[in-house]
Amino acid sequence: MKLGVFTLLLVCAVACSKVETPWPSPILQPPWGFPQIPFPEDNAFTQEKWELGKRLFYDPILSEDFSISCGSCHHAELGFSDDKAVSLGVGGIEGRRNSPSIANVAYHPYFTREGGIPTLEMQILIPIQEHDEFNFNIVKVAERMSEDPSYVEAAQEIFGREPDAYVITRAIATFERTLVSGNSAYDLYLQSGFGLSEDAIRGKDLFEADRTNCSGCHSGFNFTNYTFENNGLYESYEDVGRFRLTIDTNDIARFKVPSLRNVELTGPYMHDGSISTLREVLDHYNQGGESHPHKSGLIKPLNLSNQEIEDLESFLRSLTDKKFTNNPLFYENDNQTD
Length: 338
Hints:
CATH architecture of the largest domain: Orthogonal Bundle
Oligomer: single chain
Radius of gyration: 21 Å
CATH superfamily of the largest domain: Cytochrome c-like domain
Strand content: under 5%
Order of helices and strands: HHHHHHHHHHEHEHHH
Number of domains: 2
Number of helices: 14
Shape: globular
Distance between the termini: 21 Å
């Protein structure tokens, strides 16, 4: 992004709010009730690093055949998720899992659905090297960048080095950590007592009730406790989930509990994108899921009425943050959806 665009956006923001703030504040100021964005000491935020990270996030230079980028599977208008059951890699190869939203990824303690990656910087290596994603090598990405004078100049100015894996991972992680979403109708309601419909309020109460215990897993400001659960999606799983990492049979088909932020926009749902709609997700949990020896004890029939399911769905839709999904700073070429 050009500095002039940032300046123009900042001037507009100041004119509307009548509060003078330096450029980073609109992005770095967390929503009400959120902690500060936890940038690591070895990868502190700078505007220039953010700009480089955003450019790389949307650049198909990361993929073997220049056909896809991070933004191909993480769409800003969808809360940085994908609308396909499983995303397509280079050559149209189908992936193995549904692409999760990366909104609020800054607050995750570990990454991937089985939780095997400890830092966001390390996670960036995964899609680059996976054969059904970018099918490439980060060293070769750096070589491509070295052929572009603007990338070389940016790497030198920001990091004092030539383009390499360090530059790529630190820059993209900086951009991704600023993708913070917490300005939904639900958040407005928490602050003011206004903003939710009656059915959404009933749904909220039901969501938090012991009867459903939805908040037993989907808790906190990000609506996840970051644990791993088998939710009884199947009697037999092709994808063994966390077991791949731990080789502990108790972890068979356990996956990281996802955030529910912007869940209205992030379908299809589940680790494999096998459920199309929110209503179908709620029906699954209402029925108690399929029988599986490692299914979580939290998953059991809820015996909800049709009205109660509709109320829950209304509440979940109140978690949509249009301020986030329409933020032009997060779009390639700074384009904004309606």
